[in-house]
Every structure is written in C-alpha cells, then in structure tokens.
Amino acid sequence: MNFRKKVLAGMSLSLLATGYSGVSVAQASGFTLEEVVVTARKRAENLQEVPIAVTALGEDTIERAGIERADDYISLIPNVTLVDTANIGDTQVSIRGIVSTRDAESTFAYVVDGVLSTNPNSFNEELFDVQQIEVLKGPQGALYGRNAVAGAILVTTKKPSNEFEAKLTGGVANNNATKVSGTVSGPIVEDSVYGRFSFSNRETDGFYKNTFTGQDDAVDFLKDQSYRGRVIWDISDTTSLDIRAGFSKAEGGAINFNAAFAIPQFVAVFGSPTFAVDVNDQPFNFVFNVPGENEQETMDLAIKLDMDAGFADMTASFSYNDLEEYLLSDGTAATFYGYEVTPACLADRASLNSFTSDFFGPAFQPFGVLPPSGSGAGYDPFADGANFAGVYGPYTPLSCDGYQYQERNQTDMSIDVRFTSKEDSDVRWIAGFYVAEIEREVVVAYGADTGAGFLRQPYVPANGPNPTDLLFWDDFDTSVASVYGQVEFDINDTMELAFALRYDYESRDVNNKVPNVAGSGLNVNLLDGNFQALPINAALVSNPNGIPSRSESFSQLQPKVTWSWQASDEINVYASYGVGFRSGGFNSVGTEDTLNFWFNAGYGGPGEAVGAGISVPDAYDKEVSTNIELGAKGEFMDRRLRVNAALFRTNVDDNQFFEFFAGPFGLLRSVTTIDELYIEGFEADVNFVLNEEISLFGGIGLMSSEIEANRHRPLSVGNDVPQAPEKTATLGAQYVKQLGEGLELSVRTDWQYTGAMWFHTLQGEESPTIWNAFFGPGFNSDFLDPATGSNAQRDAYDTLNLRISLSGEQWSVTAWGKNITDELYLQEVIPAPEFGGTFNHPSAQAAYGVDFSYRF
C-alpha cells in the first residue's frame, strides 16, 4: 500500500472504534477540548499560547494509550522516532532528524519534575505514576542548556497529597509477560508533609528464541524492578521542599543483531544472491553461544526547594545519579579467522559445521563453516587446508567469533538555581545558573571464547577463562558551568517578544585505564611479524610508557528570540530563532590508530590494500544547531477543533554521528562528525471532539534533509541525514461511553506510520572493505541494489494498537493489543562499510494482554 492508502486505511479503522490523542493532549470535556497547561518555558502556561512546538500528554491519555515506556509515546508524535536495540539504556531518539548518538551526549534535555537528568540511560525507564509528559521540538538550549540541540522532554510525576490514596495494577500478556505496579500516597504530617511511594515489576521472555540453546527467554527478555518515593514538605506558606528518590534494576538481552553481507563480488564468486541481500528481507536466526546479558542498576536522588523570595520565586534543585551497567555477548571475529586454530574453535567446527548442522542455513548462503580435516598428536592446524577457508557469521554458536564485554558506569551531581518573576509582572523574566560534575567509565573489551566461561570484568589476563585481546577503557570527567536567562515583554495587547540567552562552559578530561600488556596470543590477527601478541590497545605501540591523559574545554552562547502574536481569539502565530549546543568529546585512545592500521593506506598494515580513506580521530568537535521556525496554533468550532502546525529549518555544524567498525581486530565503537547538514520540514497535529463520546486525532510530519559537507566520509555529501525519515504520521480516535451505575466503556486505537529511513551517511556509494586485503581488489561494499534501490535502508512500516477498557468507580479491566497486524519491520540497521555488510535488529511483533487495576 502506498502512503495515501495507508492513511485512509488507518482512518477507517480509527473511526470504527477509537480515541484521543498523542499529539497535543486534548481531553474531551462535553463538546470542547480542555485547556492544557504546560511548563515548557519554566512557568505554567496555556499550550496554545506557548510559542514552541509542544506535544503534551496528560494523565488520561497516558492511561488510555497504555504508555509505559518511552517508545509508547514517541510513536504518537510526528517527526519524532526512537530506536531501542543493543542494551536497555541504548535508546536513540530523533527529534526533527537530530538523533541522539551512541557513546556521546544526548541531543535533548530530559527533565523529571523540573530537574535535568545528566545520565542519558535514565531516559529509557519504566513510566509509572506519571502525571504529564511534554515533548518540546527544536533547540531548547537557552533555557534547558547542554545537549538540548533537538529539543526537550519533560516528565511530571504525580505529587503526594493530603488525602490517602492507593492503587494496585497488574497484567498478563503473551511471551510469558507479567507486570505488577502499585502506589500509596497520603499525609505523613497532616497539612504539612506528604508522601508517595510507587513500585513496578515487569518480566517478559521476549518475542525471539535462541535456536541453538532452545531457550525462549535468552534473546530479547526483560526483567525490570523499579521503586520510587517522593516527599513534599510545606515548610511555610512561601517555602516547600520536594524530595524524590528512586532505584531500579533491569536485566535483559544484549546485542540481538544478525549480520548481512552487501558485497556484489561475493555474489559472483559464490553464485549466491544472499551475499547482497536486502536487509528488510533478512530472516532472523539467533544462535549465539555466549549468553547475551545486560544488567543495569540505577539510583537517583533529587531535592528541590521552592521559595517566595519577595521580588521573585526561587527554585533551587540538587540532583545525584549513579548508574552501573555491563553487557556481555557474542563477538564478530569468526569471519576473519582470528580464533581459527584455538582448540575451542576447532572442536566447535567439528560438530557445528555447515554440513552437519542447520544453524547456518544452506551452505554458503551466505555462511559456510568447514570442519577441520585433522586432529590428534602432531596435528598442525596451520597446515590444514580446511582452516582459514570458510565464510563465518558473527553471533554464532561457534567459539571462533570470540566475545565482547562492555561497561557504562556513571556518577553525576548537579545544582540548578533560578529566579522567576511574578506572574503579574509587566516584564516577565527568568535568571539562573547551573553546575554539574559527571564521572563516566566506559569499557569496550574483546577477547577469546575458550569454552571455560566468562569473567565479567574489563580485563581478563591471558591465563583467564576468557582472555582479553582488545581493550578500550577510559574514565571521563566533565565539569559544567552555565548561566542563563529569559526576558518576555508585551509589544502591545496582542504581541509578545522574548529574548533568552545561555552561556555553557564544559571542561572534559579523560584518563586511560588500559594496562600496558600484550594480548593472549590466541587471535592470529593480533600477532606481530614475529608471531608475538600485540598490545591490547593499538595506542600502546606508540605510547610504550602508557596512554596519556587528555583534556579539552568547550563553550557556546545559545541565544533564542521568539515573537508571538494573538492574531484573533482563535489563532496564535509565532516565529523563533534558536541555537543549540552539544559538547565535543573523546573516543577511546587507540581508535584512530586501530582504524588507520586496518583500513587506511600509509600506515604499514592491511589498510595498504584496503585504502578506505576514512577519518575517525580520537577526539570530536562540539555540535551546534541553528533553527528557524514559524508556527500557528488555533482552536475553532467553539473549541471542538484544535490545529497546531509549524514550518522549520535546522542547520547543524559538526553533527555527532556514531560509527561501528568490525574487522580482524574485533569490533570498535566510535563517534565522528558530519561537518554540515540541514533538515527542513513541516508538521501538524489535529484534535477534534466529534461529540460527547468520540474524539478524533492525527498528525503528520514531513522532512527533507541533506548532508552538505563531510570530510570524514566525502562520498556521503548530497545524501539524506541518517534517521530523518521523510514522512511520519499518526491517526486514531477514542470512544468513551457511560453505561450507567458508575460503569464506563472506552475504546482507543492508535495507528502510526514511519517512512523509509537510512541509518548511515553512505547510502549507495561503493566502499572498500577489509576483504580486499584478504582476496585482492574488487570486494567492495555497495548498499545500493539496482533492483530495489537499496539493500540497507529500512523500509517504511505502520503499526496499529487497540485498547478496550471497562471501568467502575474503583476498578478497571483493559484488553489491549500492540502491533495487532503483526507488522514485521526492522528496529535498526547498523552499516559497517569496511566490514562489507550490516548488523540488523528486528522489532517487537504482535503483543496482547489483559490489565487490571483497583483504587483503594
């Protein structure tokens, strides 16, 4: 179906059953839409009067749409998408095509109860006991500071009150999924101290099975336990203290990717089209032997003081967060024969080769594992013609592919103090300062799978069960200081002009923790000319006394100017110009040396035959975005119809972009930059109260983008910006019927559409691969299929959700389904051009279940 037909089909379904928004929180109240109050400019204002493109989701929508995690509301907003793949905290949010980057800072400010979170992993948490969610589009750096280049997401949790209340919720679903959550709230000291405690426990086996081990709960499983407490103390009529604390522990699968080649010359050599397959047609088979596991523990504390200082209202907040996370999974090195002659690899090949097992599919389509032809005393594995000859895949049951281990640990503290003018001031203003200290530890390790188990630690010595052969291990320290302010004044009775300005300064230091030792010697690709093991980090070759520390500072002025005009009683118009800033940073030392040796000419390694000509330095520049926007917000038909729309153009200098490299060394994660790009587009959302029982809603986002300069990958100039789909759309409706005697029936359906999406800057350009060093020239990757137009672009897809609820005064029962048409689509495609293929992750399939809740 083409895009227009999909929209019409979704509209037809919505009109049959449906319900309220996901686009600009409007609740049906009689025959009108209720006023929506937002805090986008750090003060309470009517949504329709705020000169910012804001989507706000209230308590009713959060409950009736079944919003429980970030993806549930992101999918309801045009020009906003989310990718959730490698591990629990690894979410990439794209707001108007500006996407948050793996291993770098976020691109949006994430604010909970008015307190900015400095830990990007905290975003993908369970959403329970939430009052409202606001999504602000466009640079918001002037008020929200560092990293708000794409926008801001504000979450407001429910406040404790002076009246006792309690709620218990539970549910069961397919894939052996269960959930239980609860809340209790009320006075601790009558009329002065109020408390609220909530918890959530969720488990699911996931949609996919490990066909090697036969386990249903070993691929995309998830276990999450979260606890939150909040206390508000009204110290006096003018002063209150808000204390919030939380703890969560999550366990899940990790690195659930399958690989696909994109090398036409392999097709010619092997006579099989599977060596240049369209990723959208790839069958997924999870057969890893290393347990894919991810564990994350998070603790957070926020203290906020609100006080009437006479001339202004003062808000002072302190935030502390602590995250500890690791992941362990299979590796990628088997294809490059690194561990080919280890006893574990030879034993696995003897029993799990492509001719006696079906884990790889038909032989050499595209993977082919040859069994060794000899064994026993005197056997020389290097002389065996069956060795170093197969075409292996990553993430297989063979120990030949090694393992990978990663850690992301962070501790941070921040203080934010601001003064806000009184609401009745002729000139409204905000002034404040912000400071933060962030300590982050990053580990990426790769080593041998000897079959003896795994130590879950950054470095394992050569005599350990899983010795380390490649290690990136750094401590990053960041100090942040900023001052900010905003002034709003009325030009006349219908026009307002606002000026905002922020100055951010960041000092960043990195200290390397890689021990100055050699690898295990088990990986034949990591031996020198004398067959001795190389150091476990390439930078140690040129720094024999240890890898030096590094430091850099980044600063930026972030102005914003906004004009707004109440054109009539029904219509408000606004225009704005704003700047956003994301600090530069560091890749792990050794990144540049490793890639130069293996992929670039002039460094004396295999790169002489590859000649990729890529540039990925050990440090990357700050990112600056500039946005111009024109918007209009209107309410018509006696406030039964609400229409909000905006046109925008964003120019970005040094856009930070994640690159993944796989090769004989193992794997490597890095951040590079795209020198110049632009994204321009249009978005609109509509809410309409048809009658007392039916509300309709919808939205559309259109974007056009282009990479204008990219010295790191010059071939990409003229291509689309990654993760900036040209079309996104939502459509749905809500039906609410009072049945009498306190009973209420509600039916809601949401349809979402996301257009085709690229994930890399290369989108059809032929690129040299490491295979040219093994087999000679001509084995280049090519992500453009003459027949289909692309074999690495994710196809457009659409999903449909449905919820039917019956509720009484104290209870409710809901039957629900997500992706009820069982649309099969990719969650992410990670191209690795120098490897010659892509690493691909499937999305969730159809889910359905029943929830219940009871209020005490």
UniProtKB/TrEMBL annotation:
One of its GO terms (biological process) is iron ion transport. It is found in: Cell outer membrane. InterPro entries: Beta-barrel_TonB, Beta-barrel_TonB_sf, Plug_dom, TonB-dep_rcpt-like. It is a multi-pass membrane protein. Its main location: membrane. Signal peptide: none annotated. Pfam families: Plug, TonB_dep_Rec_b-barrel. Keywords: Cell outer membrane, Ion transport, Iron, Iron transport, Membrane, Receptor, TonB box, Transmembrane, Transmembrane beta strand, Transport. GO terms for cellular component: cell outer membrane. It comes from the Bacteria. Belongs to the TonB-dependent receptor family. This is TonB-dependent receptor.
